[in-house]
Amino acid sequence: MSSEEDKLKKKMIEKQQEAMQNQMMHQAAAQQNMVSQQMEMLKAIMTEVLDPKARERLNNLKLVKPDVATQIQLYLAQAYQAGQIRGKITDDQLVLILKQVSGEKKDFKITRK
Length: 113
Fold this sequence. Notes:
Elements: H1 2-49, H2 52-64, H3 66-81, H4 91-103
Helix pairs in contact: 1-3, 2-3, 2-4
């Protein structure tokens, strides 16, 4: 009997592990779906907010500094949703925004004696 009980226990444990794996895969898929929806929403907002040259600059920035590009996208999306953006942002305006964002970083000067 104990060998049958062991088999049943193993089957139950396997089923529990399989159920947990399925649940984790489902959660990961749902999270991936949510991320892709958010990226599509950001893309739509960028199309609405930026003129073609500014959008091209932002896409080029994504290749070099994806973290800065994401930060800019989130900033612009929040400003758009808050109603702070009227009209399309030009390339020159985007350059000013980029300078403001990069200007927030502290410059370090090293002096040698």
